Amino acid sequence: MVADLKPFGTLKGGRDVQVITLKAGGLEARILDQGARIIWYRRGDAPNVHVTSENLSDFERELRYAGPIIGPVINRIAGARAEINGVTHTFDANQDGHHTLHSGRIGAQNAIWTIDEASQTAVTLSVALANGEGGFPGNRRITARYALEDDGLTLTITATTDAATLMNPGSHGVWNVEGTPTWAGQVLEIPTARYLPSASDNLPTGEIADVTGSVYDHQTPKAPDPTLDNNYCFEPGFGLRARLIGSTQTLEIHSDAPGFQAYAGGSNGIALEPQLWPDAPNNRHFPSILLTPGESFHQRSRFLITQ
Prior knowledge:
The structure is a single chain. The chain is mainly β. It is 0% helix and 43% strand. It contains no helices and 26 strands. An eight-stranded antiparallel beta sheet has the order 10-11-12-13-26-22-21-17, with no helix packed on it. The protein has a six-stranded antiparallel beta sheet with strand order 16-24-23-20-18-19, with no helix packed on it.
């Protein structure tokens, strides 16, 4: 089948961006090659459940974290430094001049990914990250495959390296199931009792705490507190990570990622991010994000719309 591939716009630096439209059953998803970014996902004539724009410039500004694959390391690294096999590496301190957020100012989310394969129902994109880019060692390759079936969208992320490095790529989806200007009125369910409390700089304190009874307890659905910006901890295995529930439809996210960041500080949508745990290199009791030559990073997530 022929892929639905069209021009979307041109970035400030002159790079052209394309959009790939996937269709299966009554579902439709749209992916940009800039950042391997999801910008649209809906069932039938219901509202699109992902925050989007028709203007590419918005994805360079206020929507820069809406939908891309962030890598090599999503979320935060304290002090913009970490040890890798006993050697201290320094990264781009793009958060308050002290910490690294989403791999710094250079990352997979800002690249034009190569479209390796595309059809009407699936697209595979890849990006090569050079040794030393952003301070991270290794020549690395990250691949993202979006596959749309009648019942949902599957995202598979893989990565390899030729030198020991840190690897925690993840989808930074920003969701709004009502298709309204704000997420007001929507409720969130995250079915786990374990989470990582954060300090004032939004970095984990190192504690793995019981969320029960706290403002961040979403074991039963409730409206998220606007200060929510925390990682939730899951046991190994593929399963439900979150439900975002609106008046007419619900988004379910299933994943094999052991972590799940939820951020409600944006007005137009809620960021829900399957990933490994943030600042893992500086918290040795967290699951490791070390990737070495000969190994392969692998993460699978499913996004389901129910009405």
